[in-house]
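Journal club prep, notes for RB
We'll compare a predicted complex against what the paper describes. Inputs for the adenosine-5'-diphosphate case:
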Amino acid sequence: MSWRRYCATAPEAQGAGEAFARVLRPGDIVLLSGTLGAGKTTFVQGVAKGLGVLDRVTSPTFTLVREHACENDLGITTLHHADVYRINTLDEVLDLALGELVEESGVAIVEWGDLAATLFGRDVFTIEFDVDQSEGRMLSVDGALAAQRADELDAWGQR
Ligand SMILES: Nc1ncnc2c1ncn2[C@@H]1O[C@H](COP(=O)(O)OP(=O)(O)O)[C@@H](O)[C@H]1O
Ligand SMILES: [Mg+2]
């Protein structure tokens, strides 16, 4: 089962992220896939807004993981934002211990997360970003967690 939402512009992609934050619960992991420039970081900026992150969210390409404190009514206190694009081996991803890093009150969003999907060993959301000819992005949400949040996702996108 998957949900799609078309974003014609970057602000629309941020809006999609902000709305997606309402689907999240403490402990969730979200894996993003799509080419360089597909809009993954842009989407995370929207999620951060939806979670009540106050500091600025930029690409964690060189730091690999950034933690942002957040304030919201969802019980989520930390957003862990990772980008594993520059990681060379799966061992390096394992070293990040992202699964363990997401304590009970945090959520993790991982750019290029499809590269590491098998490492998480628990139910996740996957979001794929496809760029079309007019520079719009089609976002497709899938994964075992998505199936469990069907009602919430119906408010977010189209089945
Ligand atoms: N519809 C759209 N959705 C998302 N980003 C868009 C869109 N149209 C243009 N952009 C631009 O594309 C770039 C996407 O970059 P970014 O979010 O960093 O991608 P990624 O993290 O996937 O490499 C940004 O400059 C953003 O403003
Ligand atoms: Mg990025």
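Talking point for the session: The chain has one domain: 3-146.
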